[in-house]
Amino acid sequence: MKQISGVKTLYKTGNQAISENDARIEKMGEVDQFDHKKLDELKILYPGKGNSRVLNIFRELRTQLLQINKKKNFVCMVSSICDKGGATYMAQNLAAVFALDKAKTSLLIDANLYAPKQDELILGNAEVGITDYLSEHVSDIKDVVYATGIPRLRVVPLGEYSEGAAEYFSSERMLRFVDEVKNRYPDRFVFIDAPPILSSSESRILADIVDMVLLVVPHGKVTLD
């Protein structure tokens, strides 16, 4: 191994040199993977899926988000204007498309108090989640991060202590949580599935602590026009 540019250590594996971060990603413990039938059931995009146009749209959105943040990792809140507006679908598939890149990892945080769904991606049972950590019923962040059936994608479910979550999300502990999950690994891209922004105070609180907000406006569901 050798040092380059003063910061990156390279590891030689055969004829290929990979960075320290790439080596860590390769060693991520994947429990199992969803087959295509399960991914279709969950409405998760993947290479080879019949409708490649939708996958390419998400890839283009990935490119735009990276350009906005100058290719650095970020925390992105995904919210909709209205109930059942598609924010969960967008958050899940953005996280999945970022994780398609073998040099990147995704973390998907469920902060949708009124319709939590991210535990469906978790392999096995999710006993605790972000509200358990924020309410200090769990002390270590790693205890609320779960493997999924999608390589390089991890999920933090909502948890059991969702009452009073608006106060949790505005706490100093939440700020530290967001900072830790973003900055621990430079290849990690964090997505927060948030409630509809017009009908919840939680989304407006979360919007102040993330790097960017992606707002989903479903066609024909917001106004008569």
Briefly characterize the structure:
The protein is built from eight helices and nine strands. It has helices spanning 20-26, 36-42, 52-68, 87-100, 130-134, 165-169, 172-183, 201-207; strands at residues 2-4, 8-13, 16-19, 75-80, 105-110, 146-147, 153-156, 188-193, 212-216. The strands form two sheets. The chain has a six-stranded mixed β-sheet with strand order 6-7-5-8-4-9, with helices on both faces.
Strand percentage lies at 15-25%
Alpha-beta classification: alpha/beta
How many E-type strands? 9
User: In order across it, which strands form the biggest sheet?
Assistant: 6-7-5-8-4-9
User: What do the pLDDT scores average to?
Assistant: 86
Order of helices and strands: EEEHHHEHEHEEHHEHE
Low-pLDDT residue intervals, each spanning 5 or more residues: 1-17
Q: Main β-sheet: number of strands, strand sense, barrel status?
A: 6 strands, mixed
How far apart the termini lie comes to 62 Å
Shape: globular
Helix content: 25-40%
Put simply, the count of helices is 8
What is Rg? Answer: 18 Å
